[in-house]
Amino acid sequence: MLYKWFNGLFLYQLEPSFFYTRQDLFTWFFMQAGMHQWLLNNKPGWILFDALFYSMPLIYFLSLKYLKKASLAIVLCMITVNWCYVQCYTLYPSNSIEGHIAWLVFPVVFLGNSDKTFSLLFEGLRYFFIFFFASAGVWKLVQGGAFSPAEMSGILLYQHNQLLTNSPGYWQSGLFLWLIQRPPLAYLLYLSAALLELSFIVGFFTKKFDRQLFLLFLLFLVMDYFIMRITYLEVSPLLLTLLMKPGRENTIKHG
C-alpha cells in the first residue's frame, strides 16, 4: 500500500478518464454493471474505492480478534471488494490484471472456519500458483516466442520505446538499446525466463523443491523489474504457499 501510494498508483492518484476492454468473458459480464464507467472522472468514488480496498485486510484482522462471528461475512466482503477494485483498476490503462492475481485468489483461503478446510484451500492455492507461473512458460512455447531469436529484441523495443525516445541518455536506455542491438543475447534472457517458468511444473509432482522454486521466483521478480521495468511485487504473497505448511495453526506458527 505504501509503495503504491509513494509511486502515485492509488486510483485517486491515477485519475482515470478512459478505459479499454479486455478480451475475456468475465470482464464483459462485469462491465455490464457499469461500475468502471461510474468511476471515470469521479474523485469521491476513487477515494472511496481506495479506502475500501486497502482497509479490508485490517478490518478482517480486527474481526478475528474482536468479532469472530462476523469474520466469514467480512471475508466475503473483502473478496467482493477486491474483485470489483482490481477489475476496474486494470480496465484503466495502468496495470495488467496478472500482477494483481494474489488480491483476487488469496483471500479465498480464509473462507474455511476449520483447519481442514483452510489446509485444503491453502494447498489448492499452491497448485494454482504453480499453474499460473508454469503456464506462462508453456505459452511461450505454444506462441513460438521461445523459438524466435528476435523475439526478446522486439519485446524490449515495444516495452521501452517511450524511455528510449524521451530519455536516450539514461543508463537503462543505454542497456536496453545494447540488448536490442544484440538479438542473440536478448534471446538468451528470454529463453532463460521460459525455462525458469517451465521448471515450476515439477511442483505438480513433488514439494521437495519448493524452496528452490521460491528462490527462482524471487530471481524472476528482480530480473523482470530490472529488464522489463514491470513490478510484480503484488504476486509475492503467493510465495507463502511454497514456504508454509497448509494448516492454519501450523502456517501461523511456521511463519
Supply the key terms.
single chain, 255 residues, mainly alpha, 2 domains, 15 helices, 66% helix, disordered C terminus
Can you put this structure into words, describing what you see?
With 255 residues, the protein is an all-alpha fold. The protein has 15 helices and no strands. 66% of the residues lie in helices and 0% in strands. Helix 8 packs antiparallel against helix 12 (183-198) and helix 9 packs antiparallel against helix 11. It is globular and about 60 Å long.
A few lines on this structure:
This protein is mostly helical and 255 residues long. The protein contains 15 helices and no strands. It has helices at residues 2-6, 11-14, 25-31, 35-38, 43-66, 71-91, 101-105, 115-142, 151-159, 161-166, 171-180, 183-198, 210-228, 240-243, 248-254.
Q: Give the overall silhouette.
A: globular
Kindly report how far apart the N and C termini lie.
21 Å
How many β-strand runs? Answer: 0
Helix content: 55-70%
Percent strand equals under 5%
Q: Describe the biggest sheet?
A: none
- Overall pLDDT: 89
Helix and strand succession?
HHHHHHHHHHHHHHH
* Contiguous helical run count: 15
